[in-house]
Amino acid sequence: MKVLGIESSCDETGVAVYDTALGGARGLVAQAIYSQIALHAQYGGVVPELASRDHVRKTLPLVHQTLDEAGIAPGDLDGVAYTAGPGLVGALLVGAGVARSLAWALDIPAVGVHHMEGHLLAPLMQDDPPEPPFVALLVSGGHTQLVHVEAIGHYRLLGETLDDAAGEAFDKTAKLMGLPYPGGPQLAALAEQGVPGRFRFSRPMTDRPGLDFSFSGLKTQVLLAWRDSDQSDATRADIARGFEDAVVDTLAIKCERALESVGCNTLIVAGGVGANRRLRERLQVMASKRRGRVAFPPPALCTDNGAMIAFAGALRLEAGQRQGLEINVVPRWDMATLPAV
């Protein structure tokens, strides 16, 4: 089954073709991603109306480009998958409208995909993928969640952030120290130059039971440290390192607790922050000590992309799940309500 996937939940337009006959990483036949970073940089964040308009401009050209790279005609497709939520409602409607119209014109099935399920399943696209049950850490600019995956489509939330997501905390912390938009990757790169231990910040909510997260207080600690410092380049790098270490340690501590709570030794990590090098190293060490396994998607598939939507959609289309002709999106969507595959 050849499935076209369209991702348009926020500020990146992603299109991909996944072929289930090939399977694994080989099944990703072609993909294209267009980022709106330059468009939103002058505003310091995503402007929803501008994001929607840019999706209108880029989605169809990217569909044509991806099909050309895959070497297939539209009539060769067996299904279309699109992000139905969560996300910005206008942006979601653009992708859903294009996908649903293509499916109608080609007389093939379409399915709406949960954005976070797409992220969660992305590590399974590799060869020798982990099998459920496992614990998933979904960590991005909009979400920080620990989920027990009993089977694909059977998701139980173990813990989530009570305020800022980890990626959001990266972006906001970078902004308050004067780093350019988008700040998260800039801060992580700067942390590589920092001296570990010069600034030590708290590991929020690790001194009490539970699997929830909170990063807003950590952000405030960084603000105070930066305000009272000499604000030199070296100090900026040292604070960035202290902040990153605090976030990485917090995520690792909570992941280990989650694995213990469900009696599991397999962890998968997905979402934009999952590309962070220090987080990957820390979780690899943790998994090795437990004689367990941790799986990540390739860094290019950690951020929003069409490949994860095509893959997740292909699994649901093969299970016989379909959408009607109506165009529906769900800006807020609990993943636990998804049907089993």
TrEMBL record:
Keyword Iron: yes
UniProt: substrate binding residues: L138, V139, S140, G141, G142, D171, G184, N276
Cofactor(s) listed: Fe(2+)
Pfam families assigned to the protein according to its UniProt record, in alphabetical order: TsaD (PF00814)
UniProt-annotated location(s): Cytoplasm
Keyword line: Acyltransferase, Cytoplasm, Iron, Metal-binding, Transferase, tRNA processing
UniProt cofactor note: Binds 1 Fe(2+) ion per subunit.
EC number per UniProt: 2.3.1.234
Enzyme class: transferase
Cited InterPro entries: ATPase_NBD, Gcp-like_dom, KAE1/TsaD, Peptidase_M22_CS, TsaD
PROSITE patterns noted in UniProt: GLYCOPROTEASE (PS01016)
Superkingdom, natural source: Bacteria
Swiss-Prot/TrEMBL catalytic activity: L-threonylcarbamoyladenylate + adenosine(37) in tRNA = N(6)-L-threonylcarbamoyladenosine(37) in tRNA + AMP + H(+)
Major site of localization recorded for this protein: cytoplasm
UniProt domain Gcp-like: residue ranges: 28-311
Binding site for Fe cation: H115, H119, D304
Listed GO biological process terms: tRNA threonylcarbamoyladenosine modification
A GO MF label: iron ion binding
Xref: NCBIfam families: gcp_kae1, T6A_TsaD_YgjD
HAMAP family according to UniProt: TsaD
PANTHER family attached to this UniProt entry: TRNA N6-ADENOSINE THREONYLCARBAMOYLTRANSFERASE, TRNA N6-ADENOSINE THREONYLCARBAMOYLTRANSFERASE, MITOCHONDRIAL
Family stated for the protein in its record: Belongs to the KAE1 / TsaD family.
Role noted for this protein: Required for the formation of a threonylcarbamoyl group on adenosine at position 37 (t(6)A37) in tRNAs that read codons beginning with adenine. Is involved in the transfer of the threonylcarbamoyl moiety of threonylcarbamoyl-AMP (TC-AMP) to the N6 group of A37, together with TsaE and TsaB. TsaD likely plays a direct catalytic role in this reaction.
The name this protein goes by in its record: tRNA N6-adenosine threonylcarbamoyltransferase
Top-level taxonomy: Bacteria, Pseudomonadati, Pseudomonadota, Gammaproteobacteria, Lysobacterales
